[in-house]
Design a protein that fits this description.
This protein has about 170 residues and is mainly α. The protein has helices at about 1-30, 35-65, 75-110, 120-150. It has one domain (about 1-150). About 75% of the residues lie in helices and about 0% in strands. About 20% of the residues are buried.
């Protein structure tokens, strides 16, 4: 059971690491590449991250039922709720906010960097972008809390009877 839990932790850690890397890489891309190209790169990477987040959430949610009888119900349900939150945040980021941003880009008809800062579409785009950041942060925090819940799970094994720790005679018998 411990091995299975470790595999679940590895899957979650890979996604969380990718999300953290994405945040840093997105900032670097926008500083080094033309804004339109940077937006396209970030959008494609965010799509991969969101789909992966949904997949990880579903996988971990389904596997949370394995050995569930041995786990304290309170923490198990907190874990499941946070996994649902992770998957929902990635789905909203991809299918709601992503489509909303694409719609705004289409309405602008030109790159965002060429639109005036006081233009209503640019203001709305900036707000939707802010929502996107908050949604990703929500997914990352949920994943981090689930990571700590799973990693601190206690696995009980039938303990042998207490023996005298200073009785070395049993160790040297042939």
């Amino acid at each position: 059971m411990k091995f299975f839990s470790d595999i679940r932790l590895l899957v979650l850690a890979i996604w969380l690491g990718a999300a953290i890397f994405f945040v840093g890489a997105a900032q670097i891309v926008f500083r080094t590449v033309q804004p339109e190209q940077a937006g396209a790169i970030v959008r494609q990477n965010l799509t991969i991250l969101n789909y992966a987040g949904q997949g990880v959430a579903v996988l971990l949610l389904v596997t949370s039922f394995v050995g569930a009888a041995r786990i304290r119900r309170f923490w198990l349900w907190i874990e499941r709720f946070l996994l649902l939150l992770l998957g929902a945040a990635c789905a909203v980021g991809q299918f709601v906010i992503g489509f909303w941003m694409d719609s705004l880009l289409t309405q602008m008809g030109r790159p965002v960097s060429e639109v005036a800062a006081d233009d209503p579409l640019r203001i709305q785009f900036n707000q939707v972008h802010q929502y996107s950041e908050w949604i990703l942060l929500t997914a990352m925090v949920a994943a981090l809390i689930v990571f700590f819940i799973i990693s601190n799970r206690k696995f009980t094994v039938a303990a042998p009877e207490k023996a005298d720790v200073y009785d070395f005679s049993t160790e040297f018998k042939a």
